Amino acid sequence: MQVKEIMHKGIDSIAPDCSVSRAARLMKRRNIGMLPICEKGVLLGVLTDRDIVTRIVATGADANRRTVASAMTGKPVCAYQEAELGAATRRMEEKRIRRIPVVDRHERLVGMLSIDDLTRRGAGRDLVAEVLESAAARHA
């Protein structure tokens, strides 16, 4: 099975020159913990709720004045839409992450693969458990 068969499509993204506060509002409204940062459809990085806390809130920076580019994590771990699902989930397990942006061969964002996608689409329980255990170990 390929990643594109179970990934979530229609992903919100934001431009790198937007304010962090605007990104945070979008994350709150959509109830998401990670927002892809794109320019002309090309994935540049991701902004996580943790990025906002550690790079903006904890430093006392003004989220209305700081841009997403100044707080994002560049060069995110990605999966290609044509990749086999097993390869993508091994990557998630190795990097200890719960979600991964999916790109096409031109690095354009086409979707997101998350633990929720794996469980909804009936991926093996052992596989989901392994990814979850690795992600939990990262945050322990």
CATH architecture: Roll
Percentage of β-strand residues: 15-25%
The CATH class name reads: Alpha Beta
Taken together, the total number of domains comes to: 1
Separate helix tally: 6
- Unreliable parts: none
What would you call the structural class? alpha+beta
What's the total count of β strands?
6
- CA radius of gyration is 15 Å
Give structural attributes.
single chain, about 140 residues, alpha+beta, CBS-domain, 3-stranded mixed β-sheet, 6 helices, globular
Give a short synopsis of this structure.
The protein has 140 residues and is of the alpha+beta class. Helix content is 39%, strand content 20%. The protein is globular, with a radius of gyration of 15 Å.
Structure characterization notes:
The protein is an alpha+beta fold and 140 residues long. The protein has a single domain (3-138), classed as CBS-domain, CATH 3.10.580.10. 39% of the residues lie in helices and 20% in strands. It is built from six helices and six strands; from the N terminus they run αββααββαββαα. The chain has helices at residues 20-30, 49-57, 68-71, 85-95, 115-120, 125-138; strands at residues 34-39, 42-48, 73-74, 79-80, 99-103, 109-114. The strands form two sheets. Strands 1-2-3 form a three-stranded antiparallel beta sheet. Strands 4-5-6 form a three-stranded mixed beta sheet. β5 and β6 (109-114) form a beta hairpin. α4 packs parallel to α6 (125-138). It is globular and about 45 Å long. The model has no long low-confidence stretch (mean pLDDT 87).
